[in-house]
Amino acid sequence: MSDGARVIVGVSGSLESLTALHRAADEARERGAVLVPVLAWTPVGGEYNYRLRPCPPLLRAWREMAAGRLERALDEAFGGLPAGVRVEPQVVRGPAGPVLTGLADRPGDLLVVGAGRRGAVRGAVRRLFQGGGSVSHYCLAHARCTVLAVPPSDLQEDARALRRGVDLRELAALAAA
């Protein structure tokens, strides 16, 4: 195993993050690096609201829920921890972009993030209503190490089509024509 080499990957449980998690595990195996899956979380309602009305039992519950989300994501992706690589999962309180770039602070680190779907409208809506761009954009702009932005897989697009009620057989027939 490489001395101190790490592959840090942001995990949320989304299809994009599971795709990134698989790629990160492959990269960690190839490099002989430690895989560090990270789930960043913030209190419901945000840090400001929590500071106004702190409730330690609620905070513990939210942290446990975040840890459960990370465990479920690893189960969904690999059926547990991935084989053939040392894994050091982390659940960290804070916004995802700053948490990930703060952890990936060594020159030899590789930070892996899901690139998300492309689309001008979706990005504009996120910036308007969520106060900023995507986590992947944040990481690309602020990371002090190499960042690998993993595009969505074709299977993700198929899953989205199914959720929208699109008949994939019809799409396949159209593509074949």
UniProtKB/TrEMBL annotation:
InterPro entries: Rossmann-like_a/b/a_fold (IPR014729), UspA (IPR006016). Residues 6-151 form the UspA domain. Signal peptide: none annotated. Pfam families: Usp. PANTHER family: ADENINE NUCLEOTIDE ALPHA HYDROLASES-LIKE SUPERFAMILY PROTEIN (PTHR46553:SF3). This is Universal stress protein. It comes from Kitasatospora misakiensis.
